[in-house]
């Protein structure tokens, strides 16, 4: 599988609309699909001591970024949006498959365009990824049987209990609406 844009790989989304993962179009991106896809997707490839969704993780990543930077927080909220369409693949596997990274990157570009966001600068993306790494260490320490591979977890007080999928989907969607409104103000 080359994953080239000339191939069609349409999936049906939560809202019932088609989405081509190899050739994603901004017009096919819907916040409800991202929120639902991420709320139904478990972190760490599902190998947690409890269910903990990528949507829940993304909400915490966005909160890890400065409160006076709604664009940065929105980029943090959407940093794993590609996983709404292709699932959560653990980092060590992603690192071995450049084609997978390209698919996720194309999806992210479609998401940013759909929400009228310019692609993040390298500096912005570095800040989002640093927040993601902090949460990775924090979550691994609390949710995995053996997180010895992860860096020392930061001192945080995020609630990682397994909220209902419906609640997390709504929280993700509400956070996105709030941050989008702040950007328009």
Instruction: Provide the residue-averaged pLDDT.
Output: 92
Order of helices and strands: EEHHHHHHHH
What helical percentage do the residues reach?
40-55%
How do the strands line up in the largest sheet?
1-2
- Assign an overall shape: globular
Protein name: HD domain-containing protein
Organism: Salinadaptatus halalkaliphilus
Q: How would you explain this protein's 3D organization?
A:
The chain is mainly alpha-helical and 185 residues long. The chain has one domain: Hypothetical protein af1432, CATH 1.10.3210.10. Helices cover 53% and strands 3% of the residues. The chain has 8 helices and 2 strands; from the N terminus they run ββαααααααα. A two-stranded antiparallel sheet has the order 1-2. The model has no long low-confidence stretch (mean pLDDT 92).
Task: Describe this protein with a few key phrases.
single chain; 185 residues; two-stranded antiparallel sheet; 8 helices; 2 strands; HD domain-containing protein
Question: How are the SSEs placed, and which strands pair?
Answer:
Blueprint: E1 10-12, E2 18-20, H1 31-39, H2 54-64, H3 70-78, H4 83-86, H5 91-96, H6 98-114, H7 122-143, H8 165-184
Antiparallel strand pairs: 1-2
Helix pairs in contact: 1-8, 2-3, 2-7, 2-8, 3-7, 3-8
Compact summary:
It comes from Salinadaptatus halalkaliphilus. This is HD domain-containing protein. The protein is mainly alpha-helical and 185 residues long.
């Amino acid at each position: 599988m080359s994953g080239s844009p000339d191939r069609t790989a349409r999936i049906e989304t939560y809202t019932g609309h088609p989405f081509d993962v190899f050739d994603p179009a901004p017009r096919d991106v819907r916040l409800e699909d991202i929120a639902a896809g991420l709320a139904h997707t478990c972190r760490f490839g599902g190998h947690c001591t409890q269910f903990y969704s990528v949507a829940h993780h993304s909400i915490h990543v966005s909160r890890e970024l400065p409160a006076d930077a709604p664009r940065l927080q929105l980029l943090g909220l959407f940093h794993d949006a590609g996983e709404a369409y292709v699932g959560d693949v653990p980092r060590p596997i992603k690192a071995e498959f450049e084609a997978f990274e390209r698919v996720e990157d194309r999806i992210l570009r479609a998401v940013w365009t759909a929400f009228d966001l310019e692609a993040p600068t390298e500096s912005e993306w570095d800040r989002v990824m640093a927040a993601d790494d902090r949460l990775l260490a924090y979550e691994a320490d609390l949710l995995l049987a053996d997180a010895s591979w992860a860096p020392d977890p930061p001192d945080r007080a995020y609630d990682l209990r397994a909220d209902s999928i419906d609640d997390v989907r709504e929280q993700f969607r509400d956070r996105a609406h709030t941050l989008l409104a702040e950007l328009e103000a």
